[in-house]
Amino acid sequence: MWARAVPRCCVVITVAAMLLPLAARSADAAPEPPPAVAPGSDPLADSKAALGPLFIQVHQLYQNSEAATERYNATVSELAQQQSTIDDLKAKVERQQRQVDAGIDVAAQLAAAQYRNGDASGFADLLLSKNPYETVDTAWLLAEASRSQAGLLTRLKSDQSALDSLKKQAEGVLERSRMLAAEQEQAKAEAARQLAAVEHVVSSLTGAQRADLERLEKTEEGQAQAALLASGVLGKDDGAPSQPGRAAVTYALAQIGKPYVWGGVGPDGYDCSGLTSQAWLHAGRPIPRTSQEQWAQLQHVPLKELRPGDLVIYHSGATHVAMYIGGGLVVQAPHAGATVKVSPIGGMPILGTVRPDPKAEADEKDGTWEVPDIPQDTGE
Q1: Beta strand pairing call for 299-301 and 311-314
Q2: Three-state secondary structure along 13-69?
Q3: Rounded to the nearest 5°, which phi and psi values hold at 331?
Q4: Rounded CA gap, 326 and 355, in Å?
């Protein structure tokens, strides 16, 4: 009897052990994460299967938000340029108007003198008329007037024509500015909408989901970085930065931990291109404001020739930019809700790389460049 009881007891214990996890799961409202890695399983594949759609959605929302922000930044930059053009044209119009007014005064004095001397002519009548040039035949005028009179009228006509041209140009610039102001408001609204979409999705995640997404992101980022380094497209040794490049990197690294701010150009927060443009501005080399403009206007360089201070452009639409600091790392303002941090260069799809100071030589007088000892992924 006792001999049979042992197997029965073992069966009861075994069954109880099998039922305990089921009972525990039924007691919780949320499902437990999958069990520890089973032999032969792929944890990244498992995470992708569970969180893949959410992972893709969040990253697409971040990218959409950055694209909208860069469109807004572009309108802000162009509006500033347009305002500068308007101010310049306004000054030119004022100078030209003074020149025309002076010419009219001289012509009026000449005509008055001719009347007083009894030497009035059709030339004087023309000078005193409201619109003396609309029906003037130059050949007839030359026949009627002396060489000095004809020269005066020719200069006056030329000055008036230049004034009219400047006014027309100014009107065109003003109209373009009005259109840009409307585009700016649209871009601002779109950026705000995209940011709200990101915040809505992120705020709805549980703590566990956020942790899982972060692990998945770091795993994929690490794999992408390893693949990039293994491909050999990135040079094994970093070149020394130029003197302005050193200054730009130093400035950018000093911003680590500051928040990503939509449209931010510091000093309290930055967006991606706000960080890179301000870093190079403080290095004494102003560059375009947006990532698209930086990609379009700065000199392209191969990945193999990267040196600290160069800019790395990401995504097919050039919607993100970071600054290379050496050692396969970049400093960047990643996205809304994050802070300025150091990350692997291969964490996102690279479109290409550009150099803000292509004519500046590498600066090795301060010794070989060493990658700053800064923890990666500082900030969220």
Answers
A1: unpaired
A2: HHHHHHHHHHHHHHHCCCCCCCCCCCCCCCHHHHHHHHHHHHHHHHHHHHHHHHHHH
A3: -110, 135
A4: 14
Please choose, from the candidates 373, 359, 331, the residue with its C-alpha nearest in 3D space to the C-alpha of residue 242. 359
- Three-state secondary structure call for residue 309: coil
| pLDDT tens-place values along the chain, 380 residues long | 333 333 333 333 232 333 233 233 333 333 344 444 444 556 556 656 666 676 677 777 777 777 777 888 888 777 777 788 888 878 888 887 887 777 777 677 766 666 665 555 555 555 555 555 544 444 444 444 455 566 667 777 787 888 888 788 888 877 877 887 787 788 778 877 877 877 787 788 788 878 887 888 888 888 889 999 889 888 777 788 999 999 999 999 999 999 999 889 999 999 999 999 999 999 999 999 999 999 999 999 999 999 999 999 999 889 999 999 999 999 999 988 889 999 999 989 999 999 999 999 988 776 667 787 775 554 44
Q: Whole-angstrom Cα distance, residue 380 to residue 153?
A: 71
Counting every residue written for the chain, the total comes to 380
Predicted TM-score (pTM) of the model is 0.60
SS3 for 198-224 is: HHHHHHCCCHHHHHHHHHHHHHHHHHH
Which residue stretches of 146-242 are H helix?
147-203, 207-231
Q: Which domains does the chain have, with CATH numbers?
A: 70-200 (no CATH), 233-355 (3.90.1720.10)
Q: Hey, how many other C-beta atoms are within 10 angstroms of the C-beta on 162? A: 15
